[in-house]
């Protein structure tokens, strides 16, 4: 049985371990790098996990209480863009893949985001050749509205990103 819940400061160590693992296993999928985040203090990580009405980090825990998935939601703070929210840092560890963890995380994110008054859309970016992630997002109603060519550059290689949106 998978438990999906909002992470808090006391989860900082677990979150950091999964995040660093994500940056090592799938470096092409993230805008940040392992080399940048490995030096973050636990206090810095705990700050990332501070929850507000407009920002939260979800974690998926398996039956052994291991954190196997993470995803962040952050609403735009500018008055003219506050009708939009963004998904960041979606990751499911290898031991959690193929079990619907990603879908559970995203469903919970969408459900909670709907409680943000005035929120009209949720946006995300996904590396264009990450077919399984794109299928997941499309199954939840996200649609591609554009492609950013050469969005990420890692070890001299470029990755395009699909821009996706879910209208509430």
Task: Explain this structure.
The chain is α+β, with helices and mostly antiparallel strands and 168 residues long. The chain is built from 5 helices and 7 strands. The protein has helices at residues 12-25, 34-37, 42-48, 101-113, 131-139, and strands spanning 3-6, 55-61, 67-75, 84-92, 121-127, 143-154, 157-167.
Span between termini = 29 Å
The gyration radius over C-alpha positions equals 15 Å
Number of DSSP-assigned strands: 7
Low-confidence segments: none
Helical run tally: 5
Any idea what the shape is?
Answer: globular
- Kindly name the structural category: alpha+beta
SSE order in H/E notation? EHHHEEEHEHEE
Q: Quick one: biggest sheet?
A: 7 strands, mixed
Q: How are the strands ordered across the major sheet?
A: 1-2-3-4-5-7-6
